[in-house]
Amino acid sequence: MSILIKNGRIITAADEYVADIFIEGETISAIGKNLSVQADTTIDATGKLVFPGGIDPHVHLDMPFMGTFSSDTHETGTRAALYGGTTTVIDFVLQKQGHSLKEALAEWNSRANGTTVGDYSFHMAVTDFNENTRAEIKEMVENEGITSFKTFMAYKGALMIDDSQMIGLMQEVKKQGGMVTVHATNGDVIDYLVAKHKSEGKLTPLYHYLSQPEVTESEASSRFADMTDYTGCPGYIVHMTCEGALNAVRNATRRNQKVFVETCIQYLILDASLYGDDFDGAKWVMSPPLREKKDQQTLWAGINQGLVQVVATDHCPFMWEQKLMGKDDFSKIPNGHPAIENRMELLYSEGVHKGKITLNKYVEVACTNPAKIFGMFPRKGTIAVGSDADIVVFDPNETHTLSAKTHHMNVDYSGYEGREVTGKVKTVLLRGKVAIDDDKCLVDRGYGQFIRRSKVSGKI
Ligand code: DUC
Ligand code: ZN
Ligand code: ZN
Ligand code: ZN
C-alpha cells in the first residue's frame, strides 16, 4: 500500500517548504518536489498545511479517580484524538498505594491493549515509593518501554508522595535512564484551604479555584526543581498554569539547570473569570485551576522563550452527571476537562492564526518536543524519511464552531461550546493509513499500537 501526498506546504519544527511525500507501508519513504512515483492513492494537498501527527503526552483515559472513571475509554479517547489531528497519546497508569507497579500496568493493559484506535504509550505514576517499587523501575524501563515516572505532590492519601520518597525515586530513575514528571502543587496547603472553605460553608466551584492559589504551584515547582538539581534526575513539570511557577523554572536556569515544562491548551486561552457564582464553573474544575490573563501572557511568552516546551491537554473528561457528584461540595467534583480532540485546532487558531507563535513553534510544542522529551523521536513527531507516516493535512483557512453536538469525545458538554476556530483538520494518516478523512474515521478499534519508548537523557 502506498500513498502520495502532493503539493502540500510541509511544516516541521525547523522547516517550511512545498513538496510531495511518498509513503510505503507504515513509513515515509521519500520527500521531494514533483516526485515521479506510482502510488495506490494520491492526496492533493495544494493550499494545505502538512504537519506531523500531534502528540499529546498528558491524557487520562478510563481512569479511576475521585470515586468514578474518566468518561473516555482508550477507544473513544484515541479516536477523538485522531479527529483532532493527534495520532499518539501518552496515558497514565496509576499505582495503587500498597500495591506494585506491575499490577497497575496489568490493569491498564487489560483496558487499553487491542482497544485503541490511535497509537499510545504509558507513563507510570508512582504513588508509593518503597524498596519493592525501586526494584520495579528498571523492569519498566528495560522490559516495558516505560521511561517516564509521574509523581503527585498533591492528592494526599491517594496519589501524593512525600519529599523523601521523591528523592529516592529520582535517584533510582536517574540510574535507570528515565525521567520524573510531576503534578507540582503543594497538597498540604490545598487540603488546608479546602477544609477552611468547607467549614465556612463556601461550597461552589469558585472555591475549588480559591483553594489552589498560585503560591501552591510556584512553591511546589520550585521544590521539585531543587530536588531534580540535587539528584541530577531529568525532570518535567506537567500542566503548568502560572507566572510564579514559570519563574521558579526561570530561576533554576540561573544555576544552569534544565527542567522541562508542559502547559495545557486551556491555561493558554481560558481564565478564572469562568468560575462564577453558580455550578456551571464545574466544567472547568480541574487541578490546577484556570488562572489570570497575566498568567496566559506569561505562558505564551514562555513558549517563545523556550522555557515551555510542550502544549498538552490533561484530558480527563467527566459527564455532567459525574460533575454533579459535587453539586453541594466543590471538593467532590471530579477534577478534569475534555480537550484531546480540540488541542491542535485551538492552538493553531489562538496561537498561529492570531500571531502569538510561528508555525514552526506550533509543530515543535505540539508534535516534536513531546516525541523528543519522551523517547519517541524520530519515529514520531516529525516528517522525515524513515519516520512513521503520521501526518495531518490541515486547511489553515476553514473556520468552524466547536460544540458537544459535533465532537467525538465521550462527554456531554464542551468547555469550548460555540467557540469559532480558524483552521481545520482535513485528513489524518496514522502509520501510513488514512485514519480520518473529511470528518470520517476509517480505522477501527485495535488499529492503535503501544509505542515502547527509549531511555531519555533530559536533553533535546
Ligand atoms: N488534574 C485534573 O484536573 N484531572 C486529573 C488529574 C489532575 O491532576
Ligand atoms: Zn497488590
Ligand atoms: Zn495533575
Ligand atoms: Zn493529569
Automatic annotation (TrEMBL):
<feature type="domain" description="Amidohydrolase-related">
    <location>
        <begin position="49"/>
        <end position="434"/>
    </location>
</feature>
<protein>
    <submittedName>
        <fullName>Dihydropyrimidinase</fullName>
        <ecNumber>3.5.2.2</ecNumber>
    </submittedName>
</protein>
<dbReference type="InterPro" id="IPR011778">
    <property type="entry name" value="Hydantoinase/dihydroPyrase"/>
</dbReference>
<dbReference type="InterPro" id="IPR032466">
    <property type="entry name" value="Metal_Hydrolase"/>
</dbReference>
<dbReference type="InterPro" id="IPR050378">
    <property type="entry name" value="Metallo-dep_Hydrolases_sf"/>
</dbReference>
<dbReference type="GO" id="GO:0004157">
    <property type="term" value="F:dihydropyrimidinase activity"/>
</dbReference>
<keyword id="KW-0479">Metal-binding</keyword>
<dbReference type="InterPro" id="IPR006680">
    <property type="entry name" value="Amidohydro-rel"/>
</dbReference>
<dbReference type="Pfam" id="PF01979">
    <property type="entry name" value="Amidohydro_1"/>
</dbReference>
<dbReference type="InterPro" id="IPR011059">
    <property type="entry name" value="Metal-dep_hydrolase_composite"/>
</dbReference>
<comment type="similarity">
    <text>Belongs to the metallo-dependent hydrolases superfamily. Hydantoinase/dihydropyrimidinase family.</text>
</comment>
<keyword id="KW-0378">Hydrolase</keyword>
